[in-house]
Design brief:
Oligomer: heterodimer
Structural class of chain B: mainly alpha
CATH topology of the domain at 267-347 and 433-525 in chain A: Rossmann fold
Number of helices of chain B: 14
Number of strands of chain A: 23
Shape of chain B: globular
Distance between the termini of chain B: 13 Å
Helix content of chain A: 25-40%
Radius of gyration of chain A: 24 Å
CATH superfamily of the domain at 267-347 and 433-525 in chain A: P-loop containing nucleotide triphosphate hydrolases
Shape of chain A: globular
Distance between the termini of chain A: 66 Å
Largest sheet of chain A: 7 strands, mixed
Radius of gyration of chain B: 23 Å
Order of helices and strands of chain B: EHHHHHHHHHHHHHEH
CATH architecture of the domain at 267-347 and 433-525 in chain A: 3-Layer(aba) Sandwich
Strand order of the largest sheet of chain B: 1-2
CATH class of the domain at 267-347 and 433-525 in chain A: Alpha Beta
Chain lengths: 526, 364
């Protein structure tokens, strides 16, 4: 009955207000950077504590030290009043520290119960009642017998959280948990987190979404360049003051002018139907989408509704059969059966959502990664690579996009996700494309850099490029796009003009409302 | 739930010398393994050491033999490594070599009294094309039907060998050769010039060195080499950039086939002087080992080919001087490959005991 004792202890704890976790003077250096310098942090039981900071501010390094992935060079970690050195994640879990990662580690072909049993020494059948019990207690409904591939992203996240809760943690680290959720998925998650906190569990909540931090967290520790710059009560702050603390200056505001779209679509999808080879993929149905030069079209929707398939078809990584080539038109020519290289020759650029292994070769230097798509810009002479011009391009891109890295010879895999994303976006923008497809352009990128990326895309639009942005982040689309469509179960909603776009309308489309509206309209017409 | 008692994870810290670790280990183990093997067969270790590794490097003739055997190994391995970097696994160099030898033999057999200076260049052209054509079958099947190139190239080896047997005992047999299964001897114009008197090493060695330089240029400097490498290391990035996978398959197999075909021509136009039933002591297979031992790096392959040639010649010397069986050479190649692969695992990954699970984890 160890669990009961633990629960009782946790309920008592918040009254005592003994710190659960204390960090004092924690420092961690890597060969090229000091990731954390003299960081101090105190977390009490039952506290939802935000860690706020730009990419590269040292949030991840700090969390990794608390979770035992890294060991600090100097400083102390105190857990329940005792000095500890956390050797590895298993040790952290045994102390009562759990972590829910941003990217899930669930196997799609197994059930929820089987996935959770992998992390424990119990069978799926014996875990099932506990999964249901925890699910009910914290408002995390998920059927332990359902297969992971059939679950929505929100349900997968619940499974991850339950897996973490089964370890009876006193502290849960959550790495950007809302970044994968649709707008209507966020309130239930917050309800769960508040319930957990009420039971005495402390939560370290990593995020860069200022609204959420203000709505949810009791305390916020703001980090910049490896140091703690402030500890504030977020409910007393505004978005602007938080952003100023985080990036050290005011948030740049994007300035946009009215679009001047061309008359002829640069790219157009005409009644596209596509059944993906991947059995877990989403089938695309009857998609019509013109894309005019000089406009930004946003594709909203919860991920897993066909965004991945749509992006691959637009980029040419998925090639349509020759008979269906007319479903995709570039500059008036049917191009559905043309591969990615040929489409790039026609002026298409593409930013994929996976950086390592798709948008960049992890093992290659940034200079060599420039060649991946920019080799057409005079970097090949008589079949030989002109490395100096590729290096110049890479260095320019690093400088102008403020990519934090060890120079143009650094391997792509040595960069943090956000920095590699900045590099890839910078590379694709500098191709001066006629058509730009960007999938999750600011995923994992800090607020300052995200604003700069959005501004660059808007500038690119003003130069007459046709831009399509696929994003999970609704605010981003509402800020940039001239019109927004929503993808839901492989179907594309009617366009919502910028002037009419609101979180409420787009959010209702994200759960498929446009389908019933459409069918009733058809019925009326009939 | 049962689990293996160890954990394998990727090594993060690497230095410039990490790459040298696996081949050096493999070579050391092969040397020691050979000594143990020969001692068991009754050859004193020091004498075994001498036969295998010192004798091949002593004396003009022996050094010439080493260079002679090194040439085809180097040539083929450079060709194969280009494909291996793109993860196109051409295991059929032996068959492509045989086809190259057949193609290269046609001209000197049919124009047996020719003295034309164009004879050798023409043989090279025909032989390399034959090798390429043999590899092209695998390329076509892979590109068109996604047929696994490992199986196709491997099986084409056997077909090539049977084709050779048929030709040397039938259509291409020397009519004045007392029914021996071999072709007529080649005219002088069809023979490669010897480089150093008193040895058998010929200009093919130079050509293999030139091929090495070209391979280096292709791998390190050319856009084609870059595309092949991207295709091999990150196929999704290659698809993203629009580098055609089919093109990579075709190029890889054609380059490998051409190199092996060329090596085949050099065998018949060099040490053999005619087409016969046995053309190569398994150069096509040994070159695969050479390519990997050299880390698929053009410079590394140069050293790997040299070492492989040394143990081939050393094995031959040990056979005649100490009477060890012919199989010794094959065993040594096997040790080399297996230890190299094993060493690569330990260089690339860290294997450690799984720490005992903490108590709380066991409870739930």
């Amino acid at each position: 009955m160890k669990a009961d004792v633990a629960t009782r202890e946790r309920i008592k704890a918040p009254e005592l207000r003994e710190p659960l976790l204390e960090l004092a003077g924690v420092t961690k250096s890597f060969p090229t950077v000091v990731a954390n310098a003299d960081v101090s942090l105190t977390v009490h039981p039952g506290e939802i504590h935000a860690i706020l900071g730009e990419n590269g501010a040292g949030k991840s390094t700090l969390m990794k030290m608390i979770y035992g992935v890294l060991t600090p060079d100097a400083g102390k970690i105190r857990w329940r009043g005792e000095d500890v050195s956390i050797r590895n994640p298993a040790h952290a879990r045994s102390l009562g520290i759990g972590m829910v990662f941003q990217h899930f580690s669930l196997l799609e072909t197994l059930t929820v119960g089987e996935n959770i049993s992998l992390a424990t020494r119990d069978t799926a059948a014996r875990l099932a009642p506990r999964i249901v019990e925890i699910g009910e207690r914290f408002g995390l409904p998920v059927d332990p017998r359902s297969l992971v591939h059939s679950l929505s992203v929100g349900q997968r996240q619940r499974a991850e959280i339950i897996r973490c809760l089964l370890q009876e943690p006193a502290l849960i680290i959550m790495d950007e948990p809302t970044s994968v959720l649709p707008p209507n998925g966020i309130p239930p998650l917050f309800a769960t987190l508040r319930k957990l906190a009420a039971e005495g569990c402390a939560i370290l909540f990593i995020s860069h979404k200022l609204e959420e931090i203000r709505a949810l967290c009791h305390t916020a520790t703001v980090m910049r360049a490896g140091r703690v710059v402030a500890k504030v009560d977020p409910s007393n702050e505004s978005n602007e003051t938080l952003a100023r603390l985080m990036i050290g200056h005011d948030l740049p505001r994007s300035h946009r002018t009215a679009p001047h779209p061309g008359d002829r679509p640069a790219m157009e999808l005409r009644n596209l139907n596509h059944q993906p080879e991947d059995p877990f993929g989403t089938r695309l149905k009857e998609i019509d989408l013109p894309l005019y030069p000089g406009e930004i079209v946003g594709i909203a929707g919860v991920s897993g509704n066909g965004q991945r398939e749509l992006a691959a078809i637009l980029s040419g990584e998925t090639v349509l059969p020759a008979l269906e080539r007319a479903a995709l038109v570039i500059d008036g020519n049917p191009c559905g059966d043309v591969d990615a290289g040929a489409r790039r020759k026609l002026g298409l650029a593409f930013v994929p959502e996976e950086r390592n292994g798709r948008g960049a070769v992890p093992e290659m230097s940034l200079t060599k990664n420039v060649l991946l798509t920019a080799h057409r810009l005079g970097m090949v002479r008589r079949g030989m690579i002109a490395f100096d011009s590729a290096r110049a391009f890479a260095e320019k891109c690093i400088k102008e996009m403020d990519v934090r890295c060890g120079g143009s010879d650094a391997e792509a895999q040595s960069l943090s996700g956000g920095n590699l994303q900045k590099f890839i976006i910078g590379r694709e923008i500098r191709l001066k494309p006629k058509i730009m497809i960007a999938s999750q352009p600011t995923w994992g990128v800090d607020v300052g850099a995200a604003a700069s990326i959005r501004q660059q895309l808007i500038d690119l639009r003003d130069q007459g490029t046709a831009i399509l942005v696929i994003s999970d982040e609704l605010e981003e689309l509402l800020e940039m796009a001239d019109r927004v469509h929503v993808l839901f179960r492989g179907r594309l909603s009617p366009p919502i003009a910028r002037s009419e776009a609101s979180t409420g309308l787009v959010g209702s489309y994200m759960t498929g409302d446009f389908l019933s509206a459409e069918s009733s309209r058809k019925a009326v017409l009939a | 739930m049962t689990r293996l008692p160890w954990i394998v994870d990727t090594r993060v810290h690497r230095t410039r010398y990490t790459a040298l670790l696996a081949p050096c280990t493999a070579i050391a183990v092969t040397i020691v393994g050979a000594l143990i093997l020969m001692s068991i067969m009754g050859v004193p270790p020091l004498r075994a050491l001498y036969y295998l590794y010192a004798a091949p490097l002593s004396g003009r003739y022996n050094i010439g033999e080493v260079l002679l055997k090194m040439s085809p190994l180097l040539l083929i391995a450079q060709g194969l490594a280009i494909g291996f970097r793109a993860k196109v696994w051409n295991i059929g160099a032996e068959g492509q070599l045989i086809l190259g030898a057949i193609g290269g033999s046609l001209l000197p057999i049919y124009f047996n009294d020719s003295q034309s200076a164009l004879m050798l260049p023409a043989m090279v052209l025909v032989g390399a094309s034959f090798g390429m054509a043999w590899a092209a079958m695998a390329a076509f099947l892979r590109a068109r039907f996604n047929a696994n190139e490992i199986l196709v190239t491997l099986m084409l080896n056997s077909i090539a060998l049977q084709l050779l047997y048929y030709l040397v005992s039938g259509p291409l047999r020397d009519p004045f050769g007392f029914n021996f299964p071999q072709s007529a001897l080649f005219p002088d114009a069809a023979m490669l010039p010897i480089l150093v008197g008193g040895t058998r090493v010929n200009v093919s060695f130079f050509i293999a060195l030139i091929a090495t330089a070209l391979a280096w240029l292709l791998v390190r400097r050319s856009m084609i080499g870059y595309k092949l490498e991207v295709g091999g290391t990150a196929p999704n990035a290659a698809r993203y950039a629009g580098f055609s996978e089919k093109q990579a398959v075709w190029l890889s197999l054609l380059i490998g086939g051409a190199a092996a075909g060329l090596a085949g021509v050099f065998e018949v136009a060099g040490p053999l002087g005619q087409l016969q039933r046995v053309i190569s002591p398994g150069y096509g297979f040994a070159a695969i080992i050479v390519a990997f031992l050299g880390g698929l790096n053009p410079v590394g392959i140069l050293f790997a080919a040299f070492f492989m040639a040394v143990i081939l010649v050393g094995g031959d010397i040990a056979q005649t001087a100490a009477g060890v069986p012919y199989a010794l050479n094959t065993v040594l190649q096997g040790i080399l490959l297996v230890t190299y692969i094993a060493a690569r695992l330990f260089v690339d990954y860290r294997v450690r005991l799984r720490p005992p699970a903490p108590a709380s984890e066991a409870q739930i």
